[in-house]
Design a protein that fits this description.
It is a single chain. By secondary structure, this protein is mostly helical. The protein is 58% helix and 0% strand. It has one helix and no strands. It is elongated, with a radius of gyration of 25 Å.
Amino acid sequence: MPKAARIFSSISAPRIYTERSATTEKQSDRNQLIAVALFSGIGLFISLIAVITGTRGMWF
């Protein structure tokens, strides 16, 4: 007779967002956005300088 496999799934409790945790999450999202914006801005600035000065890079 075949035996049935038992699969235990862990059910986590739903996360309860309090005002404090929601503020922390928004702050985290804002920090990530600022980091991406700075990184992109620096890259664009360096590319602009390279184009203005006529520097030939690996992409040409």
